[in-house]
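Need tokens for this chain, all 385 residues.
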Amino acid sequence: MKYAGSIASHFHSVFTDHKVPVKRQKCCNKNCGWTNVPSISSLFHTNLHPDLAKLQTEMGCNHTYREAEKQMNLLSYYPRKINNHARIHTVVEIVGNYISEHQIEKLSDDIKSIPELICQVDGGHLKSKKAEQRSFEALTSVIYSPNNIHYSDKSTTTVNVKELPRGSITSKHCAASALADDLKTIKRQTLVAALKQGMTADTQVTALCDGASNCWEVINRLEGECHSIVRILDWFHIAKRFQQISLPKYLAKRLDKTKWCLWHGRHEESIERLNGIINNTRSQKMKDRLTNLQTYLKNNSGYLTDYAERYKQSKVISSSVAESTVENLINKRCKGKQHMKWTREGIHPLLQVRASAASNDWKVFGDYYVSVSYTHLTLPTTPYV
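Here are the structure tokens for all 385 residues:
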């Protein structure tokens, strides 16, 4: 081969665009005629710097794609075609799909065994792009140790049944899935998240759910991998259903007493009290809501507990004690005033990136995910740290 001039090839760095001269080659044998016209894309499988792809991914998972385009152009001080919203959307999908399909399941030996973990599973509904489907549900889960809950006000010694103190989780692992695959993806990701958080055969798991059967199915995947599972109906969702019922004063006091009985573990009494309230309610709308509440409590009676006693023992009883996983992973980005509509395949990779960022996995593996998924470079496997 011999040198046959050069050709300008496009290359996009973090804030600027360039044309890089790349050498052309051809065979010295006149009878051969072989030539090679390389480019940055053919040499490195992309003309995008990995740091730019990572920045676009982070912007795309935290802002709408059009807003991410504006933010990226503001950072560069001039409009760039490489930062258009369609390109950012493509980068997020490529990286997110790689995270979903190639989760790092080879864990480091340095992970400490945790005696107790909390698992919260919840779902959020999103508007669907399909005309025949109004909405669909995406599931999320979070695993963390009760010792990792940090309260801003530790002096709280009493509790209002209507409001519980809120805190933040200092260390956690999240999982999310919007695929209609019989819960295979969310079950696998939840198990991996639990193992990363320190679950072993000696770990007791406290599971909080809103009562939906698909959420309990995700929890059941952890059976056999831990010592035991304590299943509790999330008090946050119970209180939310009570708040949706508006009754006259003479019935409102009876409803508050019903809620008090439920809080103190007198479940059968609370369900019986609802019968009396239903019979004395004139509004059909409120009567339907009371009936739905009673059915909800009956269907999940096996998961009801003495919430007051658990609270006295500083044990978790509600997902509202820490930040809402659905709010952080789904609602903040995928819902709101934009009236956004999604497909399952479109929202799933976005949720993978957001779950990775919420788990602090992105800080450890962000460069790895982008380099391997987007540039298709062969990098050594990095164990989880």
